[in-house]
Amino acid sequence: MQQLLAPNHQPDGESRASASTAVSSRVRMIDLHVVVPDFAPPGWRWIEPENQDRQWRWHFYYTGKKAAKEAFRSSRETGERSVLVTHGPLDTMTVAKQRAVHGFGRPAHLAFSFHSPYERGFRERHLYRRLAPYIDMLVVHSGYEQRKYSEELELALGRIQFVPWYFENADVDASPAVAGDYICAVGASMRDYRTMFAAMEQLPEVRLVAIVRQECLAGLRVPANVTVLENAPKEVLWNVQYHSKIHVLPLPATSRSGHACLTQGMYFGRPNIVADAPCLAEYVDPGQNVLVYDPADADQLADAIRGLLSSPEQMESLGAAARQHALDHFSQHHVGDHLQRIFDRLAP
Fold this sequence. Notes:
The chain has ten helices and twelve strands.
């Protein structure tokens, strides 16, 4: 059995080699070793810094356990200003285990958009709690996640950083993928389509286009005024959002998701109706840039949809405020600056 090192162990003989590319002393170059998740395209520079005096040199590893182990080995050879970045639970825990066994030193390990299978059984939760101390920094997208993971993983809040999600500068086809007027609900992770569909039962005159995965529909009856698109590509999802009258984000109160779809809907200037879930607290100003309803309250959701559709002026003002809020706070440049500050802490 492999011996796990204590989290404060610094391995002997760790590589301190300088980066091979000559860089001006004015430029704060950081080597980013990124384990690319399976959903991402090659060369996935998922975020860029706004400050051009600070440059990131990218190294990519594709994908899964073998790639995560290769990233761990290679990243130890590129000098002190290096950060190893993982996305997703499998790659994150693979690197954490490598560090537990072989050494907890440079480079620092950043788990971006961290999430754990907290809905699974004791064995998975125990594994995460055991390996989490070998991750230098976890990035999550809400204060709610920050607090919950601090409790679940028994980590100090300072090890878990909130960085807002960002919208993508999407190029949307001017031709609607779905003809006619409709409202939309898109996304599958930790959604509450039971409440969404119950609200639609009260609104037979309104059409909903829902982009979901099959598991979202388990045990549900789809109302006649709901069009379901399963597993649609991102370009179709964006198109449906962009051309919708209203974007609805139905979440349970305990959700830790929805940020990507919300920020994209805000960027598109859609009026948004969202569940008043704690995970959205840093993104919304109820009544100003979104309307909210109590989670699991189908009557309240139906009333919000009906009322907003009857007020074109409010739809326009909410959409404009949402877009401005997204541009001010959730651009890739803004989020890149958040990450730059974290990288400076991890690789000073």
